[in-house]
From TrEMBL:
Keywords: Oxidoreductase. Its EC number is 1.1.1.47. GO terms for molecular function: glucose 1-dehydrogenase [NAD(P)+] activity. This is Glucose 1-dehydrogenase. It comes from Rhodococcus globerulus.
């Protein structure tokens, strides 16, 4: 009888992962953990200098990595990313669609057409286009894709309603793609991070707000990028081969406390 954890330790060994937005924050934590487990990693971001530093850190720790500079708003970007991965490593096993921005902060009522379409598109199309290019590039059976959404996708948010609508759409696409790619042995899932201590969420938690926001989280602390990276590795790993079309919320239990920020509900003084 086979051992349940057979092959678990070397699952990532010799495999190749593409992670967008991997120069900082959650993406950087993901590539760090994947490299330690033996995967070669393709890091993306807009700043080659920052990418080179991250690649060097991974290589110094014994890992294998390349940095591919590119902006997800560039229509050529998906082909460039997949092409660079294929020419360096000759295969793609994992795709983590992580990079995201929001072109609008404020009420949905105040959002103009351009900021609206830019925000919705940037949270959906790059992920779809990269998946299309990766499939065309020959994702093997046993591959996995993880799309980074947000716990806000299921919430009303006072200043990020357009961004969270983009994340809701990303989750819907995740469900459909899981159906389209499942028969090929490829899983597609999403993760909803809560408040993670990165630059992107800085306005919510930096400075004295951290204590107030932490008190609203049942686990009494904000998330660390590694909290999300651990969940990504689970979804890419051998123990999640029947997890497909799922959304994993990783937020310390914050979702069950309500949607408003500490500042808004008066906890923050
Ligand atoms: N932090 C949170 O609390 C939180 C909560 C919910 C969901 N999320 C989601 O988690 C993901 C990662 O966020 P994070 O907090 O780790 O953000 P972050 O620390 O700000 O890092 C963002 C990464 O994306 C890259 N990036 C930004 N714009 C890009 C573009 N146009 N093209 C290519 N790369 C780009 C950045 O590098 P460059 O700037 O050098 O390009 C950086 O590597 C996002 O999808 C975000 O929506 C985060």
């Amino acid at each position: 009888m086979g051992h349940v954890s057979e092959g678990v330790d070397d699952w990532f060994e010799g495999k190749v992962a593409i992670v967008t937005g991997a120069s900082r924050g959650i993406g950087r934590a993901v590539v760090g953990k994947l490299a330690v487990r033996g995967a070669s990693v393709v890091l993306n971001g807009r700043d080659q200098v920052v990418l080179d530093l991250a690649v060097k850190e991974i290589e110094d720790a014994g890992g294998s990595a390349i940095g591919v500079q590119g902006d997800f708003a560039d229509p050529e970007f998906p082909e460039k990313l997949i092409g660079a991965c294929q020419s360096e490593f000759g295969r793609i096993d994992f795709v983590v669609n992580n990079a995201a921005t929001s072109a609008h902060s404020g009420r949905v009522l105040d959002c103009g057409r351009e900021a609206f379409s830019k925000t919705i598109l940037s949270n959906t199309w790059p992920a779809v286009a990269i998946i299309q290019a990766a499939v065309a590039g020959g994702l093997p059976e046993g591959s996995s894709i993880v799309n980074i959404s947000s716990a806000g996708a299921q919430r009303v948010h006072e200043t990020a309603g357009v961004y969270t609508a983009g994340k809701s759409a990303l989750e819907s696409l995740t469900f459909t793609l899981s159906r389209e790619l499942g028969p090929r042995g490829v899983t597609v899932n999403a993760i909803e991070p809560g408040i993670i201590k990165t630059d992107l969420a800085g306005a919510i938690w930096k400075g004295e707000r951290e204590a107030a926001e932490s008190r609203l989280i049942p686990m009494q602390r904000l998330g660390d990028p590694s909290d999300i990276a651990n969940a990504v590795l689970y979804l890419l790993g051998p123990d999640a081969r029947w997890v497909n079309g799922s959304v994993l919320r990783i937020d310390g239990g914050r979702f069950h406390v309500g949607g408003e920020s500490a500042h808004k509900i008066g906890v923050f003084q």
